[in-house]
Structures are given as structure tokens and as C-alpha cells.
Specification:
Helices cover 32% and strands 29% of the residues. With 179 residues, it is of the alpha+beta class. The longest helix has 32 residues, at 3-34. The chain starts with a helix and ends with a helix. InterPro entries: CNP1-like_dom (IPR014861).
């Protein structure tokens, strides 16, 4: 083996070592991304809901309130949280408005703000994630999560229009399973 062949061979080994180190670093970084703690994005409160944008949804036969989502407020964040304005109306006509989020990965919900009669928002005092209850009566969060927002512990679709089409047509994810 002559001197130029040895030089070329050494240069090849050096290049191979450099590439191997780069791939190893990339490989480690991919795993590091998986271990990063979940971080919630900053939330912007939406405009107050308007009657023409409300999408009523079924909760249960024993529900004591009626529920709707403001379609204009629906969003899917890069943090995997589906955010929306929820309107609940009691049988006596009392109306509650709240801006909320559902985290499919952990099956939790959070109230960000409460809507006032003048259209203003007031930040919720209890700004914590809570488990979604699968009760029988007013199970509005469970209905939204299982029927429209979440599939196998992840967001059904990051395409808001796809979720809105389902809600408008009342085509639930549970209906898909029954087919």
C-alpha cells in the first residue's frame, strides 16, 4: 500500500468516524425529545361566543343541562390540548360560559376562564388540570373527549375543520366504532 492509498484510507476512516458521531448525537437527541416534560403553551382567550356559532352536542339521556361548543373558539394547540368555549344552559335557562381545554393524552380537562354576561372573561381561580369524570348525568367533558376530540389517548385530528365537521353532522368517534 503506497502513501497516497494510506492517506485516502485514513481520510475515509476520519470521515466515517465523524458521520458516526453525528448520527449517534442525532439518535440520542431523538430519545431526549421523548423524555422532555410536557409543557403547556400560552393561552389566548377567544372572542365571546355568538349564537350562530354554537354547536350543540349530546351528553346523556339523564343530562340536566344542554351543552354547546362555540365553533369559532375551537383550536388544537401544539401542546396537544383541544381548547374551546363551552356553553351550558340549565333547565331554568341559567347560562354558563367557560373557556376550557381537554388534554387527550392524560384524559384531563382545565377551565381557563369564565365568561361574564357583558362578554368579558375572568380567569378561573382553579387553574389546574383535573381528570375527566365518566358519570351519567352532566358528563359534558367526557362526551366531548370520547365523541369528538380524543382517539386512543391522542387528539383525533389537528385539523380543526375536521372536528367541526364531525360536530356539525353529529358524527361521533363512538359511531365510527359501531360500524
Amino acid at each position: 500500500m503506497n502513501k497516497s492509498s494510506r492517506t485516502a484510507l485514513l481520510a475515509g476512516f476520519a470521515l466515517l468516524s465523524a458521520l458516526q458521531a453525528a448520527f449517534a448525537q442525532s439518535f440520542d437527541e431523538d430519545f431526549d425529545d421523548e423524555n422532555k416534560p410536557w409543557e403547556e403553551i400560552a393561552v389566548q382567550l377567544p372572542a365571546p361566543p355568538k349564537a350562530e356559532n354554537l354547536l350543540p352536542f349530546y351528553v346523556s339521556p339523564t343530562a340536566t343541562q344542554s351543552f354547546a361548543v362555540d365553533g369559532k373558539s375551537l383550536s388544537v394547540g401544539s401542546d396537544g390540548v383541544v381548547r374551546y368555549t363551552l356553553i351550558s344552559v340549565s333547565q331554568s335557562g341559567a347560562r354558563n360560559v367557560s373557556y376550557e381545554g381537554i388534554r387527550c393524552e392524560t384524559f384531563e380537562r382545565k377551565i381557563y376562564a369564565i365568561g361574564q354576561s357583558n362578554g368579558a372573561w375572568v380567569r378561573a381561580r382553579r387553574d389546574k388540570w383535573e381528570g375527566i369524570v365518566q358519570g351519567f348525568a352532566n358528563r359534558q367533558h367526557a362526551a366531548l373527549a370520547t365523541d369528538y376530540f380524543c382517539e386512543n389517548r391522542s387528539v383525533y385530528s389537528s385539523d380543526v375543520e375536521k372536528i367541526l365537521r364531525r360536530m356539525k353532522s353529529k358524527q361521533t368517534l363512538v359511531d365510527d366504532l359501531r360500524r
